[in-house]
């Protein structure tokens, strides 16, 4: 095996998805601690800093300590090189969050066991599902009273329509938490081993799947309840199938408590056993490029602007798909054919930025950008000449009317608008005839970043008028009749001139569907 081959095989690249407050930051920190990437918890981001001045996103960045360094975190564990990509929640949720999922090979879904599946998890899950990547579930906060584990599993299956397979099962919960019955490793993992007069965390199960009769837990009614649940699962539950896990059709479920660091290491080790190696990537022509291919290639999935206000630089995040990236190498930008030298690149770690020397498929590198790159761009080395397929378009949920404050500055307004739209920072729609500009986003922060960048980078002050949340649905241009539009369903076209309606709410959409049953209403992702 070549060195490249060996290196690629070590890579495990994934994102952690969750609803805000389910415990993503806490679990990420635990993983980084295990990997030796940080020395103490609280390093990842100090985001719980209360209210921040919404108008100034640079301030937001500073205050919350969100930085490019926490967008991608890398560490070594068990002979694997792990890349965790952050998918921000809260106010900083944006299309970039979705696009990050295009750059990973697996996802870990963290669920608050008291709350079950929440809205944002559902959205992110949908994107993972569309990609067909393996999804692993961590049911968090076992140290608190939560919902019945069987309930959680059936909700998972019903709401997300994915089969599940518990790898372990909680023995009690909240104050009554005793441990995990780990059917995958055939052992019980104790929450408080000292309670039983030993430091040994793990007790092996016998052939009957029982802990030894002399163990005090053996008499515990909680334990016998677990055995009943496990028996039920064995009889009525799904069978484990690595193939289905890899296809993203079966999610292995782990229980634990990130805060008290219980079950997290078991999760990490088992996850790394199953997590896939870097996958092949599809070109525009539909061909697959193997991660072992010798020529370098990769695509840009995220552009983070204004990292350094003095220089107005941006960082383009590139997922390496093949070959070996070397510092200073020459590459081509597929969209323009332009040749560029990749000398200024960064590799990401939890608490420092280091210069990357070498990266292979699965790794993420940050490229300093002075305005050359767009979301979805492919870079390749030599004469490889590949172009990866476009990243999907997402259905925005929030809309604003936007105009230039100073009518004399239309030129800079249009330039900024065009570039930010191309870059994927915001989506642009125009009304028919009057050509009014409407911008769309999946998260509020996108608007704030847009406004800030328009002013700072293009010297264009914009006026934004909120239109609230709308449901966007595309229609076939052939079926378009402008008389179909009203104030409850505004007709606009996207930047590819495709018609869509912005519905005031689901009620308006149903009304429309009843009135025009032949018109198919299509959502993007
Ligand atoms: P994120 O928004 O998903 O990144 O969530 P955080 O990791 O910031 O956690 C949100 C809150 O839940 C914080 O106050 C955490 O301390 C708390 N938390 C996280 N994991 C656990 C857990 O396992 N048990 C308990 N009791 N609290 C937790």
From TrEMBL:
<feature type="binding site">
    <location>
        <begin position="18"/>
        <end position="25"/>
    </location>
    <ligand>
        <name>GTP</name>
    </ligand>
</feature>
<dbReference type="InterPro" id="IPR009000">
    <property type="entry name" value="Transl_B-barrel_sf"/>
</dbReference>
<keyword id="KW-0547">Nucleotide-binding</keyword>
<dbReference type="InterPro" id="IPR035647">
    <property type="entry name" value="EFG_III/V"/>
</dbReference>
<dbReference type="InterPro" id="IPR031157">
    <property type="entry name" value="G_TR_CS"/>
</dbReference>
<dbReference type="GO" id="GO:0016149">
    <property type="term" value="F:translation release factor activity, codon specific"/>
</dbReference>
<comment type="similarity">
    <text>Belongs to the TRAFAC class translation factor GTPase superfamily. Classic translation factor GTPase family. PrfC subfamily.</text>
</comment>
<dbReference type="InterPro" id="IPR053905">
    <property type="entry name" value="EF-G-like_DII"/>
</dbReference>
<comment type="function">
    <text>Increases the formation of ribosomal termination complexes and stimulates activities of RF-1 and RF-2. It binds guanine nucleotides and has strong preference for UGA stop codons. It may interact directly with the ribosome. The stimulation of RF-1 and RF-2 is significantly reduced by GTP and GDP, but not by GMP.</text>
</comment>
<dbReference type="Pfam" id="PF22042">
    <property type="entry name" value="EF-G_D2"/>
</dbReference>
<dbReference type="InterPro" id="IPR000795">
    <property type="entry name" value="T_Tr_GTP-bd_dom"/>
</dbReference>
<dbReference type="InterPro" id="IPR027417">
    <property type="entry name" value="P-loop_NTPase"/>
</dbReference>
<feature type="binding site">
    <location>
        <begin position="86"/>
        <end position="90"/>
    </location>
    <ligand>
        <name>GTP</name>
    </ligand>
</feature>
<dbReference type="Pfam" id="PF00009">
    <property type="entry name" value="GTP_EFTU"/>
</dbReference>
<dbReference type="InterPro" id="IPR004548">
    <property type="entry name" value="PrfC"/>
</dbReference>
<dbReference type="GO" id="GO:0003924">
    <property type="term" value="F:GTPase activity"/>
</dbReference>
<dbReference type="GO" id="GO:0005525">
    <property type="term" value="F:GTP binding"/>
</dbReference>
<dbReference type="InterPro" id="IPR032090">
    <property type="entry name" value="RF3_C"/>
</dbReference>
<dbReference type="InterPro" id="IPR005225">
    <property type="entry name" value="Small_GTP-bd"/>
</dbReference>
<protein>
    <recommendedName>
        <fullName>Peptide chain release factor 3</fullName>
    </recommendedName>
</protein>
<dbReference type="InterPro" id="IPR038467">
    <property type="entry name" value="RF3_dom_3_sf"/>
</dbReference>
<keyword id="KW-0963">Cytoplasm</keyword>
<keyword id="KW-0342">GTP-binding</keyword>
<dbReference type="GO" id="GO:0016150">
    <property type="term" value="F:translation release factor activity, codon nonspecific"/>
</dbReference>
<keyword id="KW-0648">Protein biosynthesis</keyword>
<feature type="domain" description="Tr-type G">
    <location>
        <begin position="9"/>
        <end position="279"/>
    </location>
</feature>
<feature type="binding site">
    <location>
        <begin position="140"/>
        <end position="143"/>
    </location>
    <ligand>
        <name>GTP</name>
    </ligand>
</feature>
<dbReference type="Pfam" id="PF16658">
    <property type="entry name" value="RF3_C"/>
</dbReference>
<dbReference type="GO" id="GO:0006449">
    <property type="term" value="P:regulation of translational termination"/>
</dbReference>
<dbReference type="GO" id="GO:0005829">
    <property type="term" value="C:cytosol"/>
</dbReference>
<dbReference type="InterPro" id="IPR041732">
    <property type="entry name" value="RF3_GTP-bd"/>
</dbReference>
